[in-house]
Amino acid sequence: MYNFNAFRARKSPLKHISVYPAQMQTQSLGRLRIRCATENEVPVSNATITISSPSDPERTIEMLRTDESGITEVVELPAPPKDYSLAPSEPQPYSEYDLNIVAEGYEQEFVSGVQILPDVTAEQNAVLEIVPPDEPLETQIVIPPHTLYGDFPPKIPEDEIKPAAETGAIVLNQVVVPEFVIVHDGPPTDASAQNYYVRFCDYIKNVASSEIYATWPEATLYANVLAILSFTLNRVFTEWYPNQGYNFTITSSTAYDHKWSYGRNIYSNIAFVVDSVFNNYLSRPNVRQPILTQYCDGVRTSCPGWMTQWGSKDLGDQGLTAIEILRRFYGSDIFINTAEAVAGVPQSWQGVNLTVGSRGNDVRTIQEQLNRIAQVYNAIPRIIVDGIYGQQTAEAVRAFQRIFNLPVTGVVDKATWYRISGIYVAVARLAS
Q: What phi and psi values does residue 419 have, to the nearest 5 degrees?
């Protein structure tokens, strides 16, 4: 029996989460992989994860253990029929599971309400804190319902372009993807709400996993991720909240921004989409700032002139591309732009994939970064730093991709380049 009273709540108090009995009886299956690491990306090996159902917390469904890279095997879990997530429906379209994470020398973490959709892989990233042996620490995380299923306030309309003439409205000279955003976990005026420093890509993955279903068509996922990116980069570019005297970048309130949930699971296909386009945003001719691309679900609330999530799903079903979907809602003059810079990386990707036979400084950079990461992630083989992309380098890249749930190709594409850079910076900070 879990001692709920002992948990240090980072979110709301534990609440009852309904699980339909049919969810445990269906033959549909989703997948779950858990990764345990510290805040500085040090893997937590040999952690034990117990999976149970909120409706029967005493019964263990699965018990997993992390390997030397802090990851578990992928486990299949019952989920509702896929049709539930392909149209607005009364039955809950995802199953919910509880995780109890225990690792010697680290805080114990209890995650309630991990959402499993059919036919996709959910990733649960657990950030564990090192604690002294005589000071056990326990953390409780409660994942709220998905926004398409739960009850959340609709977006309060704003102008999609902030007036440049307004004092202090536009501060930055160029669009830059930040390394971190500061998320205020509540409405802007709630002074009691906590602020969280969140890596930019992790923030986008969290929001997209909270607001759209990973079972939707790929073009729909891209369209919605681009809208989330553009909205977020507008907040960054205009310094919207700091100009009002606040000390954060964006909020987790759907009335003002997007739904972000501390500690929630993300989905591997959504993560892939984000990694592929994270430095893109939506523009209009002769407008410097990213467009504040607001949207609504289109079923419970209507929003003329904005994208509707269910409408974008229907257009994806019809075979439209991401930009075609976006233009149906935001107009034919909207186009995809690219940020001038990505903050927090030693060197930007040059736009050319690195593969066996590649040579030069970019290859050397990747080799050096992988060797530094390998000091922490021992499953990555050490390689000679010679600027030549041989089979050893390709194998090190494949090992990195396996650990961080990227397509295992052995090729350094844009997503792999920036993920290697991000992990390198994190582990380098650990040593400084």
A: -70, -40
What's the token pair of residue 308?
Answer: 């509707």
The secondary structure of the chain in percent helix, strand, coil, rounded to multiples of 5, reads 30, 25, 50
3-class state of residue 422 by DSSP: helix
Distances, alpha carbon 19 to alpha carbons 98, 116, 378, 404, 426, in Å? 12, 12, 40, 30, 38
pLDDT at residue 164, rounded to an integer: 64
Two tokens, residue 362: 């970019």
The DSSP-derived string for 122-174 is: EEEEEEPPB--TTS--EEEEEPPPPTTTS--PPPPP--SS--TTSTTS---SS
Q: Are strands 280-283 and 335-338 parallel, antiparallel or unpaired?
A: antiparallel
Neighbouring C-beta atoms of residue 129, cutoff 10 Å: 11
Give the DSSP H/E element, type plus range, for residue 376: none
pTM listed for this prediction: 0.91
What whole-number distance in Å separates Cα of residue 327 and Cα of residue 290? 15
Nearest alpha carbon to residue 307 among 224, 230, 250, 225: 224
How far apart are the C-alpha atoms of 402 and 409, rounded to whole Å?
A: 9
Is residue 148 a contact partner of residue 60, using CB atoms and an 8 Å limit?
no
pLDDT, tens only, 209-252? 999 999 999 999 999 999 999 999 999 999 999 999 999 999 99
Element (H, E) at 170: none
Select the more confidently predicted residue: 311 or 20.
311
Q: Which two tokens stand for residue 418?
A: 């920036």
Question: How far, CA to CA in Å, does 147 sit from each of 115, 142, 258?
Answer: 12, 15, 10
Q: Nearest Cα to 264, choosing from 359, 148, 125? A: 125
Alpha-carbon torsion (404, 406, 407, 409), positive or negative: negative
Using DSSP's 3-state secondary structure scheme, residue 274 falls into helix
| Bridge pairing between strands 95-102 and 56-65 | unpaired
Three-class SS state of 49: strand
Q: Map out the domains of the chain with their CATH numbers.
A: 4-142 (2.60.40.10), 176-341 (no CATH), 346-431 (1.10.101.10)
Query: Given a cut of 70, is residue 322 above it in pLDDT?
Result: yes
What backbone torsions phi and psi does residue 58 show, to the nearest 5 degrees? -80, -15
Contact 395, 381 (CB under 8 A): yes
In residues, how long is the chain? 432
